[in-house]
Each structure stands twice: as C-alpha cells, then as structure tokens.
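Appendix B. Raw example, untouched.
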Amino acid sequence: MRVAHRRTTAVRRLTAVTLGLLALTGCGGPDDGPDDRQDATAKATATASVTSAAPTPAPDGTAPSTAPSASASSATAPSASAAGANAARWAGTKQFVQIDDARTAGGRTYLSVRPAEKKPHPRFEAWVIVPGEGPYTEVSMAEDAQVLLSVPLGDAKHPAAYAQDEFVGRLTARPSSDRALLGFDLSFDGQGRVTRVQSLYTP
C-alpha cells in the first residue's frame, strides 16, 4: 500500500510540473507578435503620409519654387513693324493705293497707305476707286520722288507735277470722306521708298 501511495504522489507531482511548464510556455504566446507588428505598420503608414504631403525638393536640394518660369513670363518682341514688313514686300514694285494721310518730318514725306482697286468708269474716261480693307501703313517717300496730280486733287484733268509739300497740303486739306474716293499709283525703289506718286483722274 505504501508503494502504491508513493507512485500516485509521484504521478501527481509530475503532472503538476508539466502543467506549470505548459502555462509558462504560453505566457509569451503568438498573439503578442502580430499586435506589435500592426502597431509598427500603422506608425510607418502615418510617417509616409506626412512625408508624401510635403513638396518634393528640387534635384539640386533647394526648396521647390512656384514662381513662373522665365520662358512663360517673357513676352516675344515683334521681329519687325508692319511698315517695315510692307516696305520690304513692296520694294521694287508698283501698287495702287488709297492715301489716308500725309505728313512731313525731318525733311522727308510720309504717307499712310492701304492697297485698293481701280476700275474704268462706265461713262467717262476716268476711274472708279474700290476701297481696300484693313489698316493703313506708313511708308516714306524718297527725297527726289516725283508727284503727279490730276483732278480733283490737281488743277487739271491731265496729270501735272507738284512739289511734295504742296501735295501734302492739298491732301490733308480735304476731309477723310473725300480722301477715301481718291486713288494713287505708287512706284517703290529697292529699299521700299516711294519714288513716284500719281493721282488718278476721277470726275
């Protein structure tokens, strides 16, 4: 009986020790690892969000700038004025034009001209002026340019020679509505200057 009692007691002690070891082994159980990893992941995500919200620095390490680039803010200057372009286009040619205004400055005469058309008058030996469209362009006259005027700007039906200053005075003395009915044949030299002006006879 004593031997059986000792065996029973030994088995109980061994069982108690085994259960205790199992309990100790489960204290640091596998559930602690995932929780810690989830906390670390959340912190990393928050840090990444804050970092991505900040502006990205320039490649040279300087802070990014929101100022417009020089190419966007700079204006493109015109290569040439309209007068210069037309003078080059008309160089060495003859043009039929209207003259809206004329002036003298620095010893040179300048004319504000616009291309037009002319048609024979249906009843008289004269011309009908068909006004052009668009803006007038200023061209200069050569110092020795010839001026030939007919009625109504001149004194006779047939063209006669006049000085440049007299031509300017006669033209500017007329109202704009009358100037729109006048037509002129112009000749240009190789530099785009007017070398000859002849007004057309209109009844």
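End of appendix B.
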